[in-house]
């Protein structure tokens, strides 16, 4: 059993690192090469639906609002995001993507779509279902186990 745990740990670490490495390489070879991985993931969390509060975005990224503020400031400076305030409560800060930000979002979403499709193409329907079920169970486990961490 110990050997299996070591193998799983090794596979999870390698998979996580490989995906980040591939994502960085693709990012640096694309037209959005001025963005870091952290910045593109922040763009993902803002999304294209419109205004989101800093609290909502920070929650999705599992970071503090203070940490998010630094990332948002960089994205605004680069022209990918913009801040606004609601008329109802001027204390509430909303963040949305600019057209440039929406374009970056699409490039990154297309990359993920292509990566997932290429992965699925390696398996038959039954294997795809098993793969999705196992990854879903792993995801639920980590969400439940480490829910309180930020």
UniProtKB/TrEMBL annotation:
InterPro entries: HTH_MarR-typ, WH-like_DNA-bd_sf, WH_DNA-bd_sf
Domain HTH marR-type: 1-140
One MF term in the entry's GO annotations: DNA binding
Segment forming the signal sequence: none
Alphabetical list of Gene3D superfamilies matching this protein: Winged helix-like DNA-binding domain superfamily/Winged helix DNA-binding domain
Entry keywords, A to Z: DNA-binding, Transcription, Transcription regulation
Pfam families with a match to the protein in the record: MarR (PF01047)
PANTHER family per UniProt: TRANSCRIPTIONAL REGULATOR, MARR (PTHR42756), TRANSCRIPTIONAL REPRESSOR OF EMRAB OPERON (PTHR42756:SF1)
Protein name according to UniProt: Transcriptional regulator MarR family
Naturally occurring in which organism (per UniProt): Intestinibacter bartlettii CAG:1329
